[in-house]
Each structure stands twice: as structure tokens, then as C-alpha cells.
Design brief:
Chain lengths: ~210, ~375
Amino acid sequence: MPNSMINVALPKGRLGEKVYGMFAAAGYECPSILEPNRKLIFENAAAGVRYFWVKPSDVAIYVERGAANVGVAGKDILLEYAPEVYELLDLNVGRCRMAVAAKRGYRDNPEHTLRVATKFARIAREYYAGLGRDIDIIHLNGSIEIAPILGLSDVIVDIVETGKTLLENDLEPIETIVPISARLIANKASFKFHSNEIEAIQRGLKGQVKNDD
Amino acid sequence: MRPGDYPLKPEECVLFALRSLYQGFGYSQFKMSKFEEYDLYVRNKDFLVSDGIITFTDTDGRLMALKPDVTLSIIKNTRQMPGSVQKLYYNENVYRISGGTHSFKEIMQTGLECIGEVDLYCLCEVVSLAAQSLRIIDDGYVLDLSHMGVVSALVDALALDADTRGRVLACVGEKNGDGVRKLCPGKDIEGLLALIAAHGPASEVIPSLRRWCTEGAARQALDELEAVTGVLEANGCGGVRVDFSIVNDMNYYNGIVFMGYINGIPTGVLSGGQYDKLMQRMGRKARAVGFAIYMDLLERLNEVVRPYDVDTVVLYDETADITALTRAVRKLAESGDSVSAQKSIPEKLRFRRLLRFSKGGIVDAQ
């Protein structure tokens, strides 16, 4: 692929479409991207961008390894995988929080090792290390909410958006670890050789960020 | 010798060129054993790039380590020579956990160290050698220069607790201005945000930061950075930029730090800086500056895709006169072609021509 184009890794799904909307409004549109088909790569040579859809948790990998010059990833992914990338802008979309949740009425017994079920082992480990709490991490890949119900874990560490899933499963958030939103990230070496193009994207997107606080 | 010259691989050409560059500037080669006492690393664990160290017990019961780093060994093994500067270069394999795979890897590392009464000349020489090293690897390179003193002075001015300070420094490394804003509500962070956003030629970046570095350590550090970049610029050393997102561990590094990038390689290939604080921690009354190049990253650079695995395949059978066959194959090889003598054509082997050894001589098989 020629060097002059900026490769943008977008997270597949609702967030990715929203973020693409911000890119388009900033002058980097590529209408074919919204057509319903199975294509994964789309480019607009005039605007100098090439988009591709990847699994949200893979965006950071594409960017860290330079296959994408820039990308959009959730702060949860950045905290969990700690990729060597620049975090250029908080896009303030896809907002949610990383939280600890447990069965309603749960009381922590500090005499026991706390069993924590999560997809985000690193975030959980660092959070509880900060509290000086000994924990046992149970790494799950989905349906985390089931773990405390079945007695697999005492609490879960997961993303909470509205809290509806928790509520429906008789769980409640008990602690917020960190607020999450989507971030514009860039490969460090790409930033050196395409700083004008990447900063233009950063400026364009900055104009699209809605600050509500 | 240029990368691509057959039969040397690009990274091998680079290695030879670097060696002659460093020797040309009076650096002598430092050769070391593969092992060191584990104790050396455990006392300076944070200095190492990765946590994991391969250890084993020596015959006399001492716990040894396969070296994960060269700099610590060099410091340990150099004698103090007041008033002079020792200049050393090395080309060694180190053993450490590689980022993505979380498993141990043997990584070839080349670099140099300048230890002793390091002055402005030494700083300029080392930074300029770093830039020249990058140019040897590829013409498309950038050497980013930062000064730990500038970063730490601007962060210190915010009077943060140790935890927040660490997180703010991480944000500086990520160019994460939004992150700093969230971590320091109500504080005057304008200078720090300017620092994060600044990158480019020294002649543009340094003047733009002057208003936040008017006194004390910040000013002194910016002056030093300006002095170094000024000398490099005056001597026509290209590709040097100022960028403060290089945040090395402040317990070891101080002063000038730098990171080199090659167009086409997704991570920094060269990393270095002044590490006077490490010298102090190891009980040395000397200053030091040096850098390392991660040679394993160069593997895919300027890769020459050869259309054939071998020029000629010579087929022979059981009846062949081995003496005559040996002679014939050697003659072909000496003519400059690569030859593979085989009884049958190996699967997936790509070759330019196929010959057959028959009746004591070579004939065209096609």
C-alpha cells in the first residue's frame, strides 16, 4: 500500500459508525463505507484516507504495529493492553465506565481473597493492587454477569454503560474504577513521518468533539 | 557496501557500517560474556526494558543471569579514570521478554557508551553518531531529542502527589493532553500542554517554549538542549527533531534523551540518553551518555525479494561418478551461480535453470 495514504483502523459496530461520522464531518468522508456489504477496506484517495473495520479490541494492535497509522480505540482497551501508541484526542463518544459490580446487597468480606471475574485482568489487578486487596482473577471472555450469580466469583469488573444488563441480572455497580470513552490513537513512528496529515485529522476531529462537561 | 549487496543481509551490512563508524570516532569494542551475576540486574531492575530475566545457578552456587542488558555490565566493568572519557561500542545478544509475545527472545543490540567527564562535546558527538547510525540504516529517519530536565521542571511546578505525577508523565509520553487536563483540574497546565503539542525542528520548537522556561532548572535544561541542537544544526546533521514525548525513567536518566525512528518500522529502533543518575546509583563519580540500536527490528527493512532460491539445480542419479560430479558442481559455483545438487527437485524450490549430470558431464535438462 502506498505511503501517502493515512490508514485508519475503525472499531466495527455502532461506535465505529459514530466515529466515522466524525471523520466525515471533519472532511474525511468515504460514502461507500456505509453501503451494506462485506467489504472491509474503503478509501478516499482525494482526502488521503483509507478506512478499515476491525474488531474493536484489535484496533490498538493494528496501530501499535503500524498497519494502521491512526485508529479509534476505547480507553478500556488502551488501559488493558497498554499499547505503545500516542493517545492524541479524547473523542468523548462511546462513553461508559469501568466498574466493579456485585449481587445486590453484597458485602465484601476482607478475610477472604476476593474472587474477581473479568475480561480486563490488568485493569482489575491494578485497581485492587492500589487498594492493597488480595484477589483471585477469573478470566472470562463474555457473559461476565453470570459469574457472581452462579457463585463463580464475588464481584465482576466490567464496562457499565446504562447499568441495564446488571439490573436485569440482579446485580448493581458498587464502585467506578475509571470513566471510559473512545480515543484517537496514532502509531509513534507514523506520527514522525506523517505528522502533518495526522495532526490535520486530530484538528479536524477536535472540532467535532462535543464537550458536555 | 550498501544494504542489498548479495550475499550479505541488509542488517549485516548495517552492522559492518556501524562498526566502522564507531571505530572511526575512537570507540573501542566492548566484548562481554553472555552471563552476569543476577545481583547486578536485581539492584537496577527498573532500568531494564523488560522485567523477565533468565537465571540459572552456576557450579559454585552463584545465581547467574543471561544478560538482558549491556549498559549495566559496561558500567560495572569500566574503571574510574578521573579527567577522561571512555568510549566503547558493543554488538551483543541480549535476552529479554519481547513486548508482544510475552516470551523470551534473543535480541541483537548494537550501541555505544561514553563514560567519564561527559561535556557538551561528548553529548553532541553521541547524538550526532546516533543520527549517522540511523542514516546508515535508511535515509528516511527521524531522531527525536528531548530533555528530561525540561519535562520534570514543568511537571514539578504543578506540585502533584507521586501517583498523579507518574500518571501525568505517562500522559506526556502518550501526547495525551486531554489526560493531563483531567488529572490536573484547576492547575496552570498551559506550559505542559504546549510541551506535549510541540514537535519539530529545534529552531521552531525551543523558542516557542521559552516563555514557560524562564528560570531555574527548566531554563538551564532548555539552554542545554538548544546548545546541543545548535551544534548539530551548524554541522549539517539532518533529521533531528525536538519532541518531549520520550519519557525515560527519571530514576536513571537525566538530561538529553533521544529516540530514533526509521520510515517503515513501526517502533523506535534507537533509544538513548544521559544516565548520570544510574552512574550515581552504581557508586560511580562520572557522567555517562549512550544509545542502543535494536537490530532485530531491521530484519524486514529493504527486504530484497529474490525471485529464485537458487540459480541452478543439478540433478544426478546413483550412477553418477561422484568425483566428476563434485568437480562440475564446484565449477558452476565458482562461475558465480548458486548451485544445488539434488537427486530429485525439492518441493517448492524456485530455480532459474535445471541441469542434469549425465555421462560424466553437465547437460541441459529442459
